[in-house]
Amino acid sequence: MSTILYPSPVFGPVKSRRLGISLGINLMPPDGKVCTFDCIYCECGFNNIFRPSKPRPTRKEVAEKLEEKLQHMTEEGLQPDVITFAGNGEPTAHPHFADIIDDTLHLRDRYCPKAKVSVLSNATQLHRPDVVEALLHIDNNIQKLDTVNPIFINKVDRPTGHYDVDKIISQLKAFEGKVIIQTMFLHGPQLNNTTPEYVEPWLKAVADIKPQQVMVYTVDRETPDPTLSKATHEELDTIRDRVIALGIDCTASY
Fold it and tell me: How far is residue 39's CA from residue 236's CA, in Å, rounded to a whole number?
């Protein structure tokens, strides 16, 4: 099983399928995974196999390393398209996430004002007011909603704590459009969320949330569960077009 663990707290820049030239920020330890999901498709592997021994980076460490990297890129005449919070687990679970966002916005404005700040999140921390407030200040608030089917969620996303999809949808609606929905479509044994059984209620939830954009994508790298496979171009294109028909911008990544 091939697994990617990202350096911490800053990595890249890397080429993102959806975001362009992305400078990554990993708020989790560099030697393992800490996440509120344990997705069977996660490129970082399963939680119980890759338990870290090192701590999360501190707010001070994140700011120092980010400034150092941005200074170096500026000297080389490079500019990121986006600064992306991702890495080895759920970024909003960091206890000082909101403060780190403030620091990042300050450094972005100083060194690369055209770059957007993005957060890739699984939406499990939207009960925290400080997290929601921080997400309202960034450019790309990207929240995961792979399905609205609880059985599929428990088989594929595998939340590590209580997860109420109806409550998550309500919290996503509360952003009043300042949110991007990201959805993984895939195939596996007795798993296929590209079928009408899954797509129809998901589309209804998307229509209720009214996000500024939807990103649909599929498996790109080797997954810890080797039985998974990509959704087809045709399937993703059909789903994308149905979202667009709702009057919502949508992109598909293959």
Answer: 20
